[in-house]
Amino acid sequence: MAVLFREKEKLFVLETKDTVYQMMIGDYGVLKHLYYGKKVGDCNLSYLLQMYDRGFSGQIPEAGDRREFSMDTLPQEYPTYGIGDYRSEALRIIDGNGGYGADLRYQSHRIYSGKYNISGLPAMYAKENEADTLELTLRDQVTGLVVKLLYGIFRELDVITRAVRIVNEGTTEMTLEKAASTCLELPHSSLDMIRFHGKHAMEREWERLPVGHGNQSVGSVRGTSSHQHNPFVILCAKEATETYGDCYAMSFVYSGNFLAEAEVDQIGQTRMLMGIHPTQFSWKLEPGGAFETPEVVMSYSAEGFSKLSHTFHQAYRNHLCRGKYKLSSRPVLINNWEATYFQFDEEKLLQIAREAGSLGVELFVLDDGWFGKREDDTSGLGDWYVNESKIRGGIGKLAKSLNEIGMKFGIWFEPEAVSEDSDLYRAHPDWCLSIMNRKPNRSRYELILDLSREDVREYLFTSMCSVLDSANIEYIKWDMNRSLSDVWSARLPGNRQGEVFHRYVLGLYELLEKLIQRYPDILFEGCSGGGGRFDAGMLYYTPQIWCSDNTDAVERLSIQYGTSFGYPISAVGSHVSVCPNHQTRRTTPLHTRGVVAMAGSFGYELDVSQLSEDEKNEVRQQIRLYKKYQPLIYNGRYDRLSNPYEEKGYAAWQFTDEERTEVLVNYVLTRKHANENIYYLKLRDLEEKAYYQADGGEHIYTGAALMYAGLPMPRDKKEYEAVQIYLRRVSFYENDSD
Ligand code: GLA
C-alpha cells in the first residue's frame, strides 16, 4: 500500500516512487498539511509545523486562548472561505441562510487499493496494484456540508492525483461558488512560477517569474483551456534547472475554464491551488445533491524539470490516453488544409493523395470545407452532410478510392460550432449559447452550440454517426474554432446559469465518450484553432492534439518546447508544410521542417504534387526515418538540451530509449552569427561506461564523454539548418583504463 494511516500519531503518509506526502488530523479535527517532497525515511514531520500568535490572525472558537491556532496561518489540505483564513481559498460556499463560511473538520477516512472514480470526467486510471486511494471525509457540523478529499497515489510513478466530492447532507440548498480540485501548502516563499502563455498560432510560451507576496494566477474564462494560458503550472526553487532543484507541478485534467494560483502569505508560506475558474461558476447543491471536481495531477521532482516532464510523459501515455492508438504507432498523415484551404474537389484531393501515397504517407485527412454549403468560413457549420458539388459521389466513394490506392481516410469536424448561414441554425436558432434578449457575439462567423443540452448532443451524435457509417473513416480531427461567450442556456432557470460553462464541458466529454465507444478503431486528433485546447482532459479522448496552426519550423521550436514540459511527445500533432511558411513567410530547409515535425505525431500539410523530384526523394527519406525512429520518439525519454528563451543561437533535444541503447540528437541553428561559436551538446542519461557510435560515423564515444564533454555541432551550418544524429550503444567497458 502506498498509503499509511499511523493511528496513534493521526498521521497520513502517502508514498510514491521517490516522494512522500504527509498530513495529519490536528487539534479540533482540523486537517493539517505537513510535507510534499523527497522521501525522508520513517519520520513524522509534524515537528515542522511551528505555530505562533500573529496579529490580526484570529482563532477558531474551540481554540480558546491558544492565540497561535489560526486558520489564517495554518497549512491546510482544503482551506475554506469565511472562517478566518484570508488567503486564497479552495472552497467558497453559501449556505441556506446566505452565510459564507464552511468549517471543515475530519470525520472519517477510507484507504483502498486501486484508484477512485469520478463520473463523467476524464481522469488518470490504474490497475488495482498500480495505485491506491485515500478518501478523507470532512464535515461542517452546522450545515451538514460534507467534503470528500480524494487522493490517488501511484506506487511506481511520482504522481498524486486529487479530486473532491462535495455533498450537501444538510436540509437546505447551498451554492458552490468556488471548488478547487487541489491545494498544496509549501512552507517557503523563494519560488519561481513557470507557466505557459500564448495566443492563436503561438501557444505554450514558457515564462518563468518569481512568485511575490499576494496572489498570482493564470487561468481561462474562455470556456476552453485556451491558447492564452495552459492548465499546467510549475512552482520551483530559484536555483532549479532541467536537472537540479525542487519543483512542484499541477496539471488539470479538464478542458474548460481553469484557475491556477500561487499565493505567498504574510509569513512567507506559499499556497498553490488549481481548479475550475470561479468566474461565472456557481453550482446549486440541493439537499442530497453532490458535485465532483475535475482531477488535478500533481508531481514533485527533486531533480529539476526534466524528471518532472518524464513523469508526466509516462503518466499520460500509460494512464490517461486510451484506445487502439494509445501506445501503438500512428499513421503518417497528409492534411489538405494548407494545401487547398476551401478550394478543392475530389479530383484535387485524389491528386494530392496519390502523390503522397507514393512517397510513403499512410493516411489522407480531408480538412474543413467538405460539408453543407461551406465555400469559406462564413457558412455551413452544423450541416454535417457532404457537399456533393465539391465531392462528387460522396464521402463513401472518396474513401473507397483512397483505400484502393492503399491510403486510410480521415475527416475534419467542428461539432461544437454552428454558422448562422446553415440549415441547422435556421431550424434551431435556440440551440446556440446566447443570453436571453441579446444577440450573441460571433467569432470566425461562428456561434457555439449549447452542449449542455441533451437534444443538441443527440443531434451531433446522430449526424456524425451517419457520416462515419457511410464510409471507411479511420481518423477524426475534432476542431473548435472560437472561445465561448454569451454563456447562457435556454434549458436552465436563471439561478442556475452559473452551471452552464461546466455543464458544457461535461456535455462535450459525454459526446466524445459515446463516439469513441462506438468507433474504437478511429484515431481522434483534438484541435482548437491548433493548440487552444491542448490539455490533459482532451488527451483522455484524443491521444494526439494538433499542437498549433503555426507550422513554421522555427516558431514550432518554442511551441513544442513549452508543450513538452507537461505533455508526451506522442500527443503533439506536428506537420511539415510548404515554404515560404503560410504563417510567417519564413523559408526553412525541408530537412529542418522534417526534424522539427518528427518531435511529435508526424505528418504533412502541403500539396506534395507541387514538389520537385529532389524534394519528393527527401520526403521519402523523412518518412522512412520517422518510421524507424517512431518507437524511440514515442516511448523514449525526451530531454530538452536547450532553452530557446535563454540560448538564442540554437535549439536541441534528445530522445533515448529505456535501455540507453539508442539516442537521437536533434539540433537546429536558429541564429547565424559571424565568426560563429561552437555549440557543444551535453547529452543526458546515457550509460557512462559504454561506447556509442553514430549512424554512418566512425568515431567511437563513451557515454561519459557524450554527457560530460559533449558533442560539438558542425560550425558550417547555415541559419535554420538542422542536424539529426542517431547514436547506438555498441558495447560496454569495465573500468576507466580499458
Ligand atoms: C483550425 C485548425 C486548422 C484547420 C482550420 C479549418 O484553424 O486548427 O488546422 O483545420 O481550422 O478551418
Provide a concise account of the structure shown.
The chain is α+β, with helices and mostly antiparallel strands and 738 residues long. The protein is built from 12 helices and 38 strands.
Detail the topology: elements first, then pairings.
Blueprint: E1 3-6, E2 11-15, E3 19-25, E4 31-38, E5 91-94, E6 105-113, E7 131-139, E8 145-154, E9 160-168, E10 174-186, E11 191-199, E12 202-210, E13 214-220, E14 232-237, E15 247-253, E16 258-264, E17 270-275, E18 283-285, E19 290-292, E20 295-301, H1 304-319, E21 333-335, H2 337-340, H3 346-359, E22 363-366, H4 394-404, E23 408-413, E24 417-419, H5 423-427, E25 446-448, H6 454-468, E26 475-478, H7 500-518, E27 523-526, H8 536-539, E28 544-546, H9 553-564, E29 572-577, H10 590-597, E30 601-605, H11 613-635, E31 637-640, E32 650-656, E33 662-669, E34 680-681, E35 690-694, E36 700-702, H12 703-709, E37 711-712, E38 722-732
Parallel strand pairs: 21-22, 21-30, 22-23, 23-26, 26-27, 27-28, 28-29, 29-30
Antiparallel strand pairs: 1-2, 2-3, 3-4, 5-10, 6-7, 7-8, 8-9, 9-19, 9-20, 10-17, 10-18, 11-12, 11-14, 13-16, 14-15, 15-20, 16-17, 24-25, 31-32, 32-33, 33-38, 34-37, 35-36, 35-38
Bound molecules: alpha-D-galactopyranose (GLA).
Alpha-D-galactopyranose (GLA) binds next to loops.
